[in-house]
Amino acid sequence: MERKATIAKLDQKMAQVIMETILDRGPGVKWDDIEGLKDVKQALMENIIYPQLRPELFTGLRSPTKGILLYGPPGNGKTLLAKAVATECRSTFFSISASALVSKYMGESEKLMKTLFTLAAIQSPSIIFIDEVDSMLTKRNAEENEATRRLKTEFLIQLDGVGSSNTRILVIAATNRPYDLDEAALRRLTKRIYIGLPDAEARAGLMRKLMKQVDSKLSTYEFDQVVQWTEGYSSADLNSLCKEAAMEPIREIPPSKIMELRSPSSVRKVQVGDFQKVLQFIRPSVSKGTIQEYHNWHKSCGGPV
């Protein structure tokens, strides 16, 4: 009854926007869906999942953090990790892009932010995931407009209020540009976890999972070669690479013959040569210079992993 009364006091238009476009009712992503990142998963287990599932054990000095920052190069699973956490915790998952919040709801952003945190408290345990948080929490300067400043202030106020009652809300923010974040935001996002490029084991696991979707003819040696060739590739890059390699056998078939194929088994299997060909134009999307920037920031301001 109290919950319905609280919802009734909210701006119904704002509440409807959140319930329809921001609330993710079924993330459905599990740990096993994410290859590699063992240390990251362990850090998230200790800081999020255990405290959510056994809150009585995590009090006092063991109290869980209110805000977590996931940072690193794009295309390496920050959003998937947040969804997996929500699934493992059996929590309500609110997902929003900060850039969309700033642009689409300009003028009403503050009210939307306040309503979001209120609904998260009502639906707790909840996780609020804010992607591209750098577009909302950039370093303050004299040139930023008043609406952006008010939104930033409202977010910081709401984040300060998390954990002040019996509600269980966790804020997970993700960014590809951690060095652009305001210091006030960093002070509140106390746990910072670096999500780097996949290592050889993670690349192999991801590529095996992707290549199960098509018939392939790669020996163990050839597969290991492809894994070595893709050092420096992000998870998104690997997905594009496997997709293009899988298309190579199709491209060899004359257009006039494609409609005559009786079954998918008529298409030849994917071979190592297909990967060699597509590797010529599917290149790493993250430069070595950018990776060095992340490493430098990680050493000075980052956290584990």
Automatic annotation (TrEMBL):
Q: Which CDD domains match?
A: RecA-like_VPS4-like
Superkingdom classification of source = Eukaryota
- Asked if the Swiss-Prot or TrEMBL record annotates the protein with the keyword ATP-binding, the reply is yes
Identify the InterPro entries for this entry.
Answer: AAA+_ATPase (IPR003593), AAA_lid_3 (IPR041569), ATPase_AAA_core (IPR003959), ATPase_AAA_CS (IPR003960), MT-severing_AAA_ATPase (IPR050304), P-loop_NTPase (IPR027417), Spast_Vps4_C (IPR015415)
Q: Print the keywords alphabetically.
A: ATP-binding, Nucleotide-binding
Matching entries from SUPFAM superfamilies are given as:
P-loop containing nucleoside triphosphate hydrolases (SSF52540)
Which GO molecular function annotations are given, in alphabetical order?
ATP binding; ATP hydrolysis activity
* Residues in AAA+ ATPase domain copies: 64-199
Entry annotated with the keyword Acetylation: no
Spell out the PANTHER family in the cross-references. Answer: AAA DOMAIN-CONTAINING, VACUOLAR PROTEIN SORTING-ASSOCIATED PROTEIN 4A
Family, according to the entry, reads as follows:
Belongs to the AAA ATPase family.
Task: State the protein's name.
Answer: AAA+ ATPase domain-containing protein
Q: Which source organism does the UniProt entry give?
A: Halteria grandinella
